């Protein structure tokens, strides 16, 4: 009997019929062939940070933690194994004088898992992590090793860069990188009205900018990051024009360091999260309604904050930022508190404004809801059926996401 799998937040628990820790590509191929021949499913799993049931299976769960590390570096590219954790990967790249262009808020994830679910950071000039992927190597549902790049199976690249793990087990990724440099992190608090009035300015005059809104106090915490060698360390106007009165604080420097240590933040407390990606132009009206509902209906029970970030548009078929500059709204709730009523109410608002759900977080959409939101949905499905014709990677949860009844 296999041990139960429990995800990071504790909300997803299941017991697979088998558990494997392949050490190389050949062992992955054997697992795929075995699942295909027996008519069972195989799901790859990284760190288990996702709170959506993408990895849930009554078949075999395959952890890639033994398939980690940098394989090769050439110029501004590095080929890495799919099970590499972002934290260790960041250290290895830094030692080689390189860095990923942008990162998300946590470094607990594996690189393949982060790419597969559309993990993102913040910054109007930066896409999600999948946009940094130049090449993908995977073991398909037929047990074939498939290389996808601009010169090999290029028609599959927009699908393979963000695939939910349904095209195959990603064993290697080649990343586009930058020379390493340090970032300066700063933060300050301000009333929400001031933050919204100056949001566009702060987004466009800082390398990275986001803010938390705290429903209990109705204040925000603004966070910016800029290169330490950049003289425009914060928005040149907004932060310096703030009145100094109750609830308003001077920008304070929190830390200076390399990107992989400065961007991700330590997360000791576990939480649940729903996050939707909105067309940037729809954000003001959507956030106003989110704020109104939380203050009117949920303020007493909401123990955590609301996070607002930005993502550049891209051309990846299942990317939540496909074809449009994007602003995200994430509602967080302590893992020990009820979340479903609150999150479902927020989801109703997000959907009114054309939002697309984050693949790795809580949502209740199925294929019929999702298909109109992604212009290249049918192209992705064709790629999935080509690479996994027998549904080796298609669990009941994923079928609800990807296949209309």
UniProtKB/TrEMBL annotation:
PROSITE patterns: FAD_PCMH, OX2_COVAL_FAD
Transmembrane segments: none
FAD-binding PCMH-type domain boundaries: 12-180
Keyword Transmembrane (UniProt): no
Alphabetical UniProt keywords: Ascorbate biosynthesis, Oxidoreductase
Pathway: Cofactor biosynthesis; L-ascorbate biosynthesis
InterPro entries: ALO_C, FAD-bd_PCMH, FAD-bd_PCMH-like_sf, FAD-bd_PCMH_sub1, FAD-bd_PCMH_sub2, FAD_lactone_oxidase-like, Oxid_FAD_bind_N, Oxy_OxRdtase_FAD_BS
Gene3D superfamilies xref list: 3.30.465.10, 3.30.70.2520, Uridine Diphospho-n-acetylenolpyruvylglucosamine Reductase, domain 2, Vanillyl-alcohol Oxidase, Chain A, domain 4
The keyword Oxidoreductase is assigned to this record: yes
Superkingdom per UniProt: Bacteria
Pfam families recorded: ALO (PF04030), FAD_binding_4 (PF01565)
Annotated region described as Disordered, given as residue ranges: 37-56
UniProt xrefs under PANTHER family: D-ARABINONO-1,4-LACTONE OXIDASE, L-GULONOLACTONE OXIDASE
Entry's family note: Belongs to the oxygen-dependent FAD-linked oxidoreductase family.
This protein's name: Oxidoreductase
Native source organism of the sequence: Micromonospora andamanensis
């Amino acid at each position: 009997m296999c041990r139960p799998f429990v995800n990071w937040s504790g909300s997803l628990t299941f017991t697979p019929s088998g558990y494997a820790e392949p050490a190389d590509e050949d062992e992955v191929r054997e697992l795929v062939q075995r699942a295909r021949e027996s008519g069972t499913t195989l799901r790859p799993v990284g760190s288990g940070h996702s709170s959506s049931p993408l990895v849930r299976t009554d078949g075999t769960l395959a952890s890639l933690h033994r398939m980690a590390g940098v394989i090769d570096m050439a110029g501004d590219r590095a080929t890495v194994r799919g099970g590499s954790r972002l934290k260790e990967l960041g250290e290895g790249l830094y030692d080689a004088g390189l860095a990923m262009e942008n990162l998300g808020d946590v470094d607990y994830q594996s690189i393949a898992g982060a790419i597969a679910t559309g993990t993102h950071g913040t910054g109007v000039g930066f896409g999600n992590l999948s946009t940094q992927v130049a090449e993908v190597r995977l073991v398909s549902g037929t047990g074939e090793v498939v290389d996808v790049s601009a010169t090999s199976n290029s028609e599959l690249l927009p699908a393979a860069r963000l695939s939910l793990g349904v095209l195959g087990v990603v064993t290697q990724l080649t990343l586009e990188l930058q020379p390493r440099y340090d970032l300066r992190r700063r933060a300050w608090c301000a009333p929400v009205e001031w933050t919204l009035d100056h949001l566009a300015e702060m987004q466009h005059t800082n390398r990275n900018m986001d803010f938390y809104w705290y429903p209990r106090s109705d204040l925000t915490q603004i966070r910016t990051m800029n290169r330490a060698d950049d003289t425009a360390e914060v928005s040149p106007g907004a932060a310096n024009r703030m009145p100094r009165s109750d609830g308003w604080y001077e920008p304070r420097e929190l830390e200076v360091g390399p990107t992989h240590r400065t961007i991700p933040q330590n997360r000791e407390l576990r939480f649940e999260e729903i996050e939707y990606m909105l067309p940037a132009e729809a954000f003001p009206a959507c956030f106003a309604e989110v704020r109104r509902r939380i203050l009117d209906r949920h303020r007493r029970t909401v123990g955590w904050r609301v996070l607002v970030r930005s993502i550049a548009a891209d051309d990846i078929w299942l990317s939540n930022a496909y074809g449009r500059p994007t602003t995200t709204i994430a509602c967080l709730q302590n893992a020990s508190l009820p979340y479903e009523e609150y999150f479902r109410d927020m989801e109703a608002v997000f959907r009114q404004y054309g939002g697309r759900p984050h693949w790795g977080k809580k949502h209740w959409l199925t294929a019929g809801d999702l298909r109109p939101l992604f212009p290249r949905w049918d192209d992705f499905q064709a790629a999935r059926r080509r690479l996994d014709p027998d549904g080796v990677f298609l669990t009941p949860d994923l079928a609800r996401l990807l296949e209309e009844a």
